[in-house]
Amino acid sequence: MTVGQTAINLPWVEKYRPSRLDDLVSHDDIVKTINQFMKENQLPHLLFYGPPGTGKTSTILACAKQMYTPQQFNSMVLELNASDDRGIGIVRGQILSFASTRTIFKAGPKLIILDEADAMTNDAQNALRRIIEKYTENVRFCIICNYLGKIIPALQSRCTRFRFAPLQQNQIVPRLQEIVEKEGVKISEDGIKALLTLSGGDMRKVLNTLQSTWLAYRDVTEDNVYTCVGHPLRSDINSILNWLLNENDFATSFQHIQDLKIAKGLALGDILTEIHTIITRLKLPPELFISLLIKMADSEARLASGCSERIELAALIAAFAQAREQVNINDLL
């Protein structure tokens, strides 16, 4: 395989990863602050936290590419991910060795990137705090995690913290359209809405779902996006909700929903999530709404602990049947 072919076969999420801070589509305040740090050669130890796909790793890699030339990069940057062993042995061995060694380059301090740091043990984190203090003159650390609470306070206090919030739709859409144009993807307006709805502000998920749908169907529409990721279609959820609200016979409702689940390969957990979104818009009396939500939440918890989907589907139908007895359904629609 040639170099050109390798580039073509790259996943889009890597192919279009920003190489400069100015290319990032969001978190302008964070980018501006880090740019200022780099301009004044005063980069502190960094701690990036927030949900997946919000640009944490892309931001620090863009920083590294701006700070070092391609020739310097490998000797000046050490990146360890969750897939690497980062127990106390690696902290005292590989990280300590990298941090304590000076280089011949005069490109400022080295950079150690610890991605998915919330997977590190407390012992490894405790061993790390002394290294951070001792070798500050020679190295800068960037700790990246999803959950700030899993990083020990001693490490948090040694770093400048930045929270990466989920991306807004108006930040995702321009980059999405740019990639669609470059790759010649045929996409509809409802396809874009479906990608944004499913992503929840996760740029990585948007691009991976876009590429998967395009490869599978060559036409990115709402139905194709939902089918590609195995998510219930809006029309299927409307049918299920119609049976729950209007079908008086328990056995008929159960059979209809069960048949649809099997035919479309739907998970009851996804159905519960979608139904929850819709019933919040219904004009239900507060007591009834709360009761229904509690029963649905209990079903979701039991599903997560391994309960049978058939039993929980029966419980869901029963919850709506009880709700129908307490209020006239025609008043809700």
Automatic annotation (TrEMBL):
Main location: nucleus
Keyword field contains Nucleotide-binding: yes
Keyword terms, alphabetized: ATP-binding, DNA replication, Nucleotide-binding, Nucleus
Single biological process term from Gene Ontology: DNA repair
GO molecular function: ATP binding; ATP hydrolysis activity; DNA binding; DNA clamp loader activity
Record's keyword annotation contains Zinc: no
Domain of life: Eukaryota
Boundaries of every AAA+ ATPase domain copy: 42-170
Family: Belongs to the activator 1 small subunits family.
NCBIfam families noted in UniProt: PRK00440.1 (NF001679)
Name of the protein described by the UniProt record: Activator 1 subunit 5
Organism: Pieris brassicae (White butterfly)
Lineage, broadest ranks: Eukaryota, Metazoa, Ecdysozoa, Arthropoda, Hexapoda
